[in-house]
């Protein structure tokens, strides 16, 4: 027994591991892919300007940019699984948020602005829409950091899906004003209260498979292979349809479960 007047000392907390772990290197790869996507876009734009070429960016450059963002999204899925299996460092969550701001906030926002600014007479609206994407990603990540772990659903459209949706708008090449409206809607979805299921277990592998298919399709499209454009339109339609309909699927599933109880 402990003598009276002596306080029982609380067990010391284990200090956070501040060395990079395997998962952290995947997270850094995610950030690097976002940086390289911006670099590839700037290089293509500079080459166009130097050659005095007007109009949209070459297909190869756009395919490279989108392919890098898809790889970043795959690394974002993998780093969490590796951290859970091999353990992560105390910096993991912070690194993940910082990488996501680069790859899923700044990179797609900049991609959209470069695409939309080719049109005349729309002023600063593309910049405002791109800024909305970046700010939505920052707010969403901050809110996610404050939420209790272990939930089965994301509140708001996850940043990688939001980035892919913005990229999809660019690939579909709608009228600039329609693109601005679509990107503003995507930004709202990211900070909304709509719920999206977390890709766990086999679902995570399914997401990785879809991202790998996306990279292959972008390579085929960039090389100008037959039916590449049709496949890109089909993939874009699937992505947008998935993003819009999934919250309603979650609501229907919950309602059915409540009725059964």
Outline of the structure:
The chain crosses the membrane at residues 23-41, 61-78, 98-117, 123-141, 204-224, 230-252. This protein is an all-alpha fold. Helices cover 72% and strands 2% of the residues.
Describe the structure.
The chain has 261 residues and is mostly helical. The chain has a single domain (22-44, 53-256), classed as Four Helix Bundle (Hemerythrin (Met), subunit A), CATH 1.20.120. Helices cover 72% and strands 2% of the residues. The chain contains eight helices and two strands, in the order H-H-H-H-E-H-H-E-H-H. It has helices spanning 22-51, 59-86, 92-116, 125-146, 159-172, 176-191, 202-222, 228-260; strands at residues 153-155, 195-197. It has a two-stranded antiparallel sheet. Helix 1 (22-51) packs antiparallel against helix 2 (59-86). The longest helix is centred in the last third of the chain and has 33 residues, at 228-260. The chain is globular and about 60 Å long.
Form type: globular
What is the strand tally?
A: 2
Distance between the termini: 49 Å
Which topology does CATH recognise? Four Helix Bundle (Hemerythrin (Met), subunit A)
Quaternary organisation: single chain
Low-pLDDT regions:
1-11
Helix content: over 70%
The average pLDDT is 81
- H-E order: HHHHEHHEHH
Return the CATH architecture: Up-down Bundle
Return Rg in Å: 21 Å
- Give the C-level CATH assignment: Mainly Alpha
Residue fraction in strands: under 5%
Q: CATH superfamily, please?
A: CDP-alcohol phosphotransferase transmembrane (TM) domain
**What structural class do helix, strand and pairing data support?**
mainly alpha
Total domain units: 1
Protein name: Phosphatidylserine synthase
Pfam families: CDP-OH_P_transf
Keywords: Membrane, Transferase, Transmembrane, Transmembrane helix
Family: Belongs to the CDP-alcohol phosphatidyltransferase class-I family.
């Amino acid at each position: 027994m402990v003598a009276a007047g002596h306080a029982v000392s609380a067990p010391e907390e284990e200090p956070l591991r501040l060395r990079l772990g395997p998962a952290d290197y995947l997270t850094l790869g995610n950030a690097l892919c976002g940086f390289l996507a911006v670099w590839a876009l700037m290089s293509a734009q500079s080459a166009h300007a130097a050659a005095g070429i007007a109009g949209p960016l070459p297909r190869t450059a756009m395919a490279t940019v989108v392919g890098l963002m898809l790889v970043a999204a795959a690394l974002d899925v993998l780093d969490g699984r590796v951290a859970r299996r091999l353990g992560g460092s105390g910096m993991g969550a912070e690194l993940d948020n910082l990488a996501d701001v680069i790859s899923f906030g700044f990179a797609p926002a900049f991609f959209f602005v470069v695409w939309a600014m080719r049109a005349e007479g729309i002023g600063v609206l593309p910049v405002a829409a791109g800024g909305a994407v970046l700010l939505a990603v920052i707010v969403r990540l901050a809110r996610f950091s404050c939420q209790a772990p272990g939930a089965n659903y994301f509140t708001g459209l996850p940043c990688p899906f939001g980035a892919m949706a913005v990229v999809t708008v660019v690939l579909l090449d709608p009228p600039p004003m329609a693109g601005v409206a679509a990107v503003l809607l995507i930004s709202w979805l990211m900070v909304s209260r709509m719920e999206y299921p977390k890709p766990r277990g086999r679902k995570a592998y399914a997401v990785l498979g879809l991202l790998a298919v996306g990279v292959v399709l972008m390579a085929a499209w960039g090389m100008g292979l037959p039916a590449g454009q049709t496949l890109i339109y089909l993939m874009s339609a699937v992505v947008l349809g998935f993003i819009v309909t999934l919250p309603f699927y979650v609501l229907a599933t919950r309602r059915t479960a409540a009725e059964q109880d």
